Amino acid sequence: MSAYIIAEAGVNHNGNLETALKLCDSAKEVGADAIKFQTWITEKVITKSVKQADYQTTNTGVSESQFDMLKKLELSFNDFRKIKDYCDKIGIDFASTPDEPESLDFLLSLDVPFIKIGSGDMCNIPFLRYVGSKNKPIILSTGMSNIEDIEISLKALREKGNNNITLLHCTTSYPCDYSSVNLNAIITLKEKFKLPIGYSDHTLGIEIPIAAVAIGATLIEKHFTLDRNMLGPDHLASTEPHEFKKMINAIRNVEKAFGNGEKKPTKEESEISTVVLKKIVAKSVIKAGSLITEKNITTKRSNNGLSAKFWDSIIGTKAIKDYDLDEPINIA
What pTM was estimated for this model as a whole? Predict the structure, then answer.
């Protein structure tokens, strides 16, 4: 089964609908399964006194409150209707992370394929209960959390019987240093919660999502931008289209390499083995009826003859014919 790959456009539209539509085109072109945005009503998700995170100030080049920053990046519900219609037209899944109940209800009215919950709503019990009541597949990012936090969040989501949940391992850092990724947490989460586990990536480059798929991630989410040099809070930690395409191609190649787990020679190996695997041949001239010993036979590549795996079986038997030097040894 192929990993589901989400191009996380987030707020990389910079509050501009046309840029958002260009991101949709680009995500489709590079082969992403879905493009995902973030939907919120600023007044309902943040107080006016909350300061920016340090990375936001650095990446935007502007020191302002989170409220003012988010207000400039906010797209309207009508904008998102247009984006959803456009995604349907070009053939890519549209999704968005709701940050409060009104935005969630709006996105559900667009028939999004799943509800994505960002790490910022870990342990947000009332919101998680509301999400869980909607009987829709859920993807939950687990940045800034530990096992207890995940247990609390899952309990809230499951109160109405919804267990269609994928957990995303995530490190909330933009960009995230390789030493902070902790990919082995994917294995920990899989063993602990018995749920599908994906990975939300904030590193620079494409190596880490590829490695995540190799150790079992079923979903990859990675920030996606048209140009990393654009001003905005998330562009610097995002992947440009040409890089994203390389990442997807590499992931698909890794998936082809998984195979079925059965260890046996491939058709190509079987063909090459006839001239590569060692055979038993005469080390010296051997007369018919002579005893075959380790002194008069050896193993070499040969077009025919007994496989070297029969070495112990043939030692101590008698030659059925005369053998010249390097002639393949056979048995009756």
Answer: 0.89
